[in-house]
Amino acid sequence: MNEPKLDQIEIKLLHALQDNCRRGLNEIANSIGSSASSLWRRLKSLEENGVVERYSVMINHRKMGIKESAYVHVRLEKHSEDNIASFTKIVMENEHILECNYTTGEYDFVLKVIAVDMRQFHRFLRDAPIQP
What we know:
Elements lengths: L7 H12 L5 H8 L3 H13 L19 E7 L6 H13 L3 E6 L6 E7 L2 H10 L5
């Protein structure tokens, strides 16, 4: 698949949307020196080409009482498809795990874990069906 070539207006549009995707196209157009109708066409094209996949909300976890975050390294004993599928299911279902990334070296994955406090984080480590 050919990757779309982005011009400076599209790059500015993407930066503006990443900064705050709730801003109106008129406001963005004024800030980058383009017309709203032109930006709308460009945005629709970026969506159709898969450059813009979705719009989302960034949550301030501290305001929700979540004060701790940590990166947890995980090494799987077996790398079979079934074991990886089980691990993936556990990760997807656990509300404390925000991210799961492959890594190289001694560990297979690194998890970004959040908790209200250290007590909850230690419970996560103790009770998780995976042992980091």
